[in-house]
UniProtKB/TrEMBL annotation:
Its main location: nucleus. Keywords: Acetylation, ADP-ribosylation, Chromosome, DNA-binding, Isopeptide bond, Methylation, Nucleus, Phosphoprotein, Repeat, Transcription, Transcription regulation, Ubl conjugation. GO terms for biological process: positive regulation of macromolecule biosynthetic process; regulation of DNA-templated transcription. The keyword Electron transport does not apply. Signal peptide: none annotated. HMG-I/Y bind preferentially to the minor groove of A+T rich regions in double-stranded DNA. It is suggested that these proteins could function in nucleosome phasing and in the 3'-end processing of mRNA transcripts. They are also involved in the transcription regulation of genes containing, or in close proximity to A+T-rich regions. The gene is HMGA1. Residues 81-96 have a biased composition (Acidic residues). GO terms for molecular function: DNA binding; transcription coregulator activity. This is High mobility group protein HMG-I/HMG-Y.
Length: 96
């Protein structure tokens, strides 16, 4: 194996001088500030708005279920009056 094809490494002193002349900071380079010709646009909020939760949405929410489509989310409990529940319990106790 001959050293003719390999590049000779530069002397250490020359390498050290180059580093001091060209000093680089670590990490991402800073963005150069540009002079804005226009007024900056205001930032828009991200995420869900903080308004009232009880308002109807502006798009008009449908409360009825369209036939042929399954309802989404947790199914609602069937509303029963407390009197009906109490009456059914009392009648079952009387039978025993």
């Amino acid at each position: 194996m001959s050293d003719a094809g390999a590049k000779p490494s530069p002397p250490l002193a020359a390498k050290g001088e180059k580093d001091t002349a060209e000093k680089r900071g670590r990490g991402r380079p800073r963005k150069k500030p540009e002079d804005p010709s226009e007024a900056p646009t205001p930032k828009r909020p991200r995420g869900r708005p903080k308004g009232s939760k009880n308002k109807a949405s502006s798009k008009g929410r449908k409360s009825s279920v369209t036939p042929g489509m399954k309802p989404r989310g947790r199914p609602k409990k069937p509303q029963q009056d407390e009197e009906e529940v109490n009456i059914s319990q009392e009648s079952s106790e009387e039978e025993q």
